[in-house]
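Researcher: Here's my situation. A collaborator sent me these components and asked whether they could plausibly form a single complex. I don't have experimental data yet, so a predicted model of the whole assembly would be a useful starting point for our discussion.
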Amino acid sequence: MKLNKDVLKKLISKIPHTHEGEIGCDECFDELHTFAEMELEGKSPEKAMPLIREHLDNCGECRQEYQALLDAMKVLS
Amino acid sequence: MLNWFKKGRDKSIKYQTNNEWILALKPPPEEQAVHQLRVHLIRGLKASLYKYVDRELDEFVEDIAQDAVLKILDKYDTFRGDSKFTTWAMKIAVREGYSELRKKRYKDISLEQYSNYDPDDREAIEIEHEQAGPDRITHESMMVQKIMKMMEEELTDKQQKVIEHLMIDQIPMTVVAEMMNSNRNAIYKLVHDARMKLKNRLQVEGIDPEEILNTM
């Protein structure tokens, strides 16, 4: 397998937080609009939807799109 | 084309509530509602994409907004009403925009170009270790070899390949998914399953991930 030390470290560092109940990109996407509105209203969505927060922390692409959605909403509000 | 639309009730109407949007976008959609939605998406997309699009931002954003409008019209009835309709629509447009950007960046590249596996890479890790002291080299090298062996034993060929493309080649998940005729969710799940397998194996071997990180 083609790997290097940094990649191994990155992978291993995710292992303690890995669990069966994690959600995927589709489940995250399903809730992203409500999560974003809650955040902009200062309603702590990470408490109401901790699995979404966890997925956003784990998935760079969903995180990037979430940030973009917030940017768009700020301009449109 | 014009027959595809029903006419708006009033030229100056502004769609604001979720109910107004849903009624207006119901087939055949009101031309004015579609126009207002597209303008709204374009404004939002410009704000969220300008950092990543060097040239022809207007043209790119208009194309994305057009594609997003078609997707929204196709599934407007799946909107659950748990946010503003426009937030839900913007979410779809943003994903469309970022997916397109990622694919565009890799459009002339195939995964095969990244698959020139060089068996000397494993040696490269050891060479890198020569910078450290001899005791640390040995301990670290042994740990690296052990983890790599575990990965080769536990993970499927597909899992190994996907991890290489994502983490070594730095190809976005959206692009890897497209190139493998899969989807992003499936690729994410594949990597999650790989992490679970490694976690279980480490538990069986009685190895604490923190200990590995401290060694490396």
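Model: Some features of this prediction you could bring to your collaborator: Chain B touches chain A through 56 residues (CB under 8 Å). Residues 184-205 of chain B form the longest helix (22 residues).
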